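User: I'm putting together a teaching handout on how multi-component assemblies are represented. Below are the sequence lines for each component of a complex, exactly as they appear in our records. Could you produce the 3D structure of the whole assembly as structure tokens, so the students can see both representations side by side? Please keep the chain order the same as the input.
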Amino acid sequence: MGIERFPVEAGHILLFARAIGDTNPAYAGALSGDAVVPAPPTFVQSSAQFDPDYFLRPKPGEPWFGSGKNATGKVSSGGGGGGGGGLHAEQHYEYHQPLRAGEILTGTEVPGKTWEKEGRRGGKLLFSENVIEYRNAKGELVVTARGVGVRTEKVVEQGS
Amino acid sequence: MADVKKGDKKELLLVDDLSRTQIVQYAGASGDYNPLHSDDKFTTEVAGYPSVFAHGMLTMGMTGRIVTDWFGVESLQKYGVRFVKQVFPGDTLTATAEVIDVRDEGGTRVADVSVTTVNQDGDAVLTGAATVRLA
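Assistant: Of course. Below is the structure of the complete assembly, with chains in the same order as your input.
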């Protein structure tokens, strides 16, 4: 899975900066008209918006595992930990060059490691790494993102 | 930045009484609509958590500001964190950053900075590190 086209836009940077409570005026170029609008350090997390099949976004006509009439609209997603895809344990970024509004990135997943650990309350913890390389239109590496997810072995019971 | 030295420290209040709405705001901006962060019914009845909780990435995003306010947005070379404890609505988060080392890396002066974010009980919710260019 990858992100074929992730346009980095000033308006999106403004909304993202607001969401993280960061009032740095550098991020508000969409309002001020500044030509150079840098992206906040964790901005590439929002590349999910540009993944047409992103599994943590409800889609028209498809069942959603969050609540509607019932507490969940779907039987177990099999994820364990009670959510989509377990929990986020670590996140690491390497910045190879500045990321600014106007760039169009691609995101390519590169193979990451998986490992196990014995949990404190018993049961295995399953860790898996997810590495995404974000490149600009010239093919140059801009940001490398390495996430570590953790799932518990025990799947949370679901109502039938 | 010429006078940055090992042991320099800053503290920043990131959020006072984190609202559910800010978590929703982050879901909308980031595109991560996992119901664990916005849907109390699902989160308590199906997933078995006491309530919705913040995206780890919201805490990481908020925490980044202590580094970028200090050294500038585009000085960052690396930024990495571990999510140590969940962050719930109502939490108050404070970040601290400390310069651990100032060194030369291929002719560029860089600083290694540790970051820690704690909640209102003084419990760490995030620990991590950043490397920034000083020149």
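A couple of points students might notice: Chain B has a mean pLDDT of 97. The helical segments of chain B are 20-30, 40-46, 56-71.
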